[in-house]
Amino acid sequence: MEGTADLLEPGLHESSKPAFLSRLRSGDEAAHLITLIFAASILLIAAWLVFELFDSSVEARHKFGWAFFFTSKWNPVSGQFGALPFIYGTVVTSAVALLLSVPLGVGAAIFLSELAPPRISDALTFIIELLAAVPSVIYGVVAMFALVPLLRDPIQPFLNRTLGFLPIFQGPSYGVGFLAAGLILAIMVVPFIISISRESLLAVPNEQREGALAVGATRWESTWQVVVPYARLGIIGSIFLALARALGETMAVTMVIGNTPHILTSLFATGYTIPAVIANEFTEATEDIHLSALVELGLVLFLLTIVINGLARLMVLATTRRGTTQS
Amino acid sequence: MTKRNCLVTGVVLALSLVAYQWAPTSPTVVKAAGKILINGAGATFPYPIYSKWFDEYHKSHPDIEFNYQSIGSGGGIRQLLAGTVDFGASDGPMTDEQLAQSKVKVLHFPTVLGADVPAYNLPGVSQELKFTPEALAGIYLGTIKKWNDGQLAKANPGVKLPDSDIVVVHRSDGSGTTYVWTDYLSKISPEWKSQVGKAVSVSWPVGLGGKGNEGVAGLVQQTPYSIGYVELIYVIQNKMAYGLVKNSAGAFVKASVASVTAAAAGAAKSMPDDFRVSITNAPGKDAYPISSFTWLLIPSTISDSAKRTAITGVLKWMLTDGQKMTEALAYAPLPPAVVKKETQAIAQIH
Q: Looking at CA atoms only, how far is residue A197 from chain B in angstroms?
């Protein structure tokens, strides 16, 4: 309290309106102003970021135009740059990560908030939140030395034997590739999903559960049909956060994806993502056009994140509407 | 209030501790006007030896301090061109275009040597493999696909090579190591030169990318039937197995500190005055063919005379006493002929 009074002192001398003064004293106006500045600063930072990326990529944008998005040649020697394999790799690895982590994360959150005894739930949650704080390079190292050998043999050969009729489970098994990157991303984002989903499930009022039970629902019916839909927005929020982290993850991905800019349908194949190629080539990019193309990739990643988030939001909106009309 | 008092006491205590810590060095701080700070940035490959050198030199010359940021050769060249550092460092010589961009003339000074070696993982083969230039180019172009290919079998009589696909591994990060490897392949293979070329990052026809020496080495060690190129220092320090390479004199040479220096000695006779020379595929029967210099990039005009004296002084020291420290860190020292030529070139800095 003392701190806020100190902060307000300069304002006191300038303002002469007593009404404003009293409101200022009580803190409302000041809080409004300060939080507004904070909120605006986030927008400013985002705008500045886009401007910088746009400005520094001018050379590549002029040279390649829209073709940058649709060509797959990435050759620093001849100065030919196209973003398509990187866009593909970023989308595929994030999709694999979400496909694996969403059911796992939401399922675990439901258990922790609805079914587990509170003591076990608290202990497990603590461990899960610890996982979220592990640096990504650690995940990368673990993936390289533990996950990749397991994938090479026996997991990928097994998938090939059993589900090999699907094009996504074909081709030679190197261990590194889309599947390895998607898996490690799934492991990295799952703590976010569990932690936030659990919080929003716990925030569901008990009356909701009791009401459902009172009309004759089983425990599971009450959880699945009442509690989970009620906490839907929080759960979806956690998935967005997970998606954002998966799209932008650099270190762990570049260590296990194989870093080859081509587009292959098999998940066993090696690929490349936008953050990985920027991290790999930025420090040694001596040609201006190379550097400019890498910055433009940053811009593409920014756009990709906006587009994917937008699409996901539209999907959420559509399903929410349907959900409300049904119930 | 007691909380605040606690806080104040804590801050005072911390400050006095800091003051105490700094007290012994305060005489030099007072002398700050006479102190010279030399800023440099660039290559990561020579970073261990540079930091050793700068540390040792600072011990004998306490008034000169160094700040070397190993941000990569590309970054070093950029910062030098922008004039934000006193010297740059690069694993590849600057191109003519880059030199033309510079406001002042930039001089190249080779400091130490490095080399790339082919490391492989061949289950069931215990002998050291021999690689011809054609075989290495074929493997990296993707035209040699199997370990029992005729090219490899011919160079390795008596070795039972498996009928397995070769898994090719390369660096994914832009690196001087890749520059040296692709420079070598461009020299010995016209197909490589026209299809791929040489650079710190290239468009690889085949293979998986690993990040850093440790990434390539990790992939090679884990993946059966793989081959990758790794820096000599890295394989020596990690005691990895690696193959011999046939040099321009037709001899199969194993990379070592001695054979890398021999490559520089072989190239010394035709050394251009600006030292911008590639020593891959160098002449000499002892020369290891995939070797390279690493360079310090120093502006020829340094207006601050104290700084100029300091830079030329440390440069002379690196070329003489400094060279004795290289082998302990597995860097190959410069041959005497190159040192002599460089010592003369230092006079160009004015």
A: 35
pTM of the complete model beyond 0.90: no
Mean pLDDT is lowest, of A245-254, B13-22, B216-225, for B13-22
CA distance A283 to chain B (A): 5
Q: What is the mean pLDDT of chain A?
A: 88
CA of A5: how far to CAs of A10, A27, A237, B118, in Å?
A: 10, 9, 36, 69
Tell me how far apart the alpha carbons of residues A293 and A65 are, in angstroms, rounded to a whole number.
Answer: 11
| Residue B169 touches chain A, beta carbons under 8 Å | no
- Helical pair A84-110 and A178-202, crossing angle rounded to 10 deg: 40
ipTM score of the complex? 0.80
Inter-chain Cβ pairs, chain A and chain B, closer than 8 A = 93
pLDDT in tens, B8-46: 555 554 544 444 444 444 333 334 457 899 999 998 889
Above pLDDT 70, what percent of chain B? 91
How does DSSP assign B227-277, residue by residue? Answer: EEEEEHHHHHHTT--B-EEE-TTS-EE---HHHHHHHHHHHHTT--TT---
Averaged pLDDT, B81-93: 92
Per-residue pLDDT at B2 exceeds 70: no
Three-state DSSP class for residue B173: coil
The three-point CA angle B323-B324-B330 to 5° equals 85
Kindly report the number of other CB atoms within 10 A of residue B270's CB atom.
Answer: 10
**Tokens 């050998």 sit at which residue?**
A149
pLDDT at A223 over 90: yes
pLDDT classification of A7: cutoffs 50, 70, 90: very low
B127-144 pLDDT tens trace? 899 999 999 999 999 999
Residue A285: which of B92, B201, B292 has the closest Cα? B201
Instruction: Supply φ then ψ for residue B120, to 5 degrees.
Output: -145, 165
C-alpha distance from A83 to closest chain B C-alpha (Å): 14
Query: d(Cα B137, Cα A264) in Å, to the nearest integer?
Result: 25
At A11, the pLDDT band (50, 70, 90 cuts) reads very low
Rounded CA gap, B292 and B177, in Å?
A: 9
The CA distances from residue B189 to A97, B151, B185, in Å, are: 42, 14, 6
Whether the CB of B41 is below 8 Å from some CB of chain A: the reply is: no
Does A2 contact B at CB distance below 8 Å?
Answer: no
Residue B146: DSSP 8-state: B
Q: Are A216 and A207 in contact (CB under 8 A)?
A: no
For residue A73, give every residue at least 6 positions away whose Cβ sits within 8 Å of its Cβ, in sequence order, or none: A80, A81, A82, B203
d(CA A316, CA B157): 66
Nearest alpha carbon to residue B106 among B230, B232, B276: B276
How would you classify residue B225: left for phi > 0, otherwise alpha for psi between -120 and 50, otherwise beta? left
Which chain B residues have a beta carbon less than 8 Å from that of A175? 222-223
CB-based contact A174 B167, cutoff 8 Å: yes
d(CA A97, CA A186): 4
Three-state DSSP class for B156? coil
Segment among A10-14, A75-79, A106-110, B324-328 with least mean pLDDT: A10-14
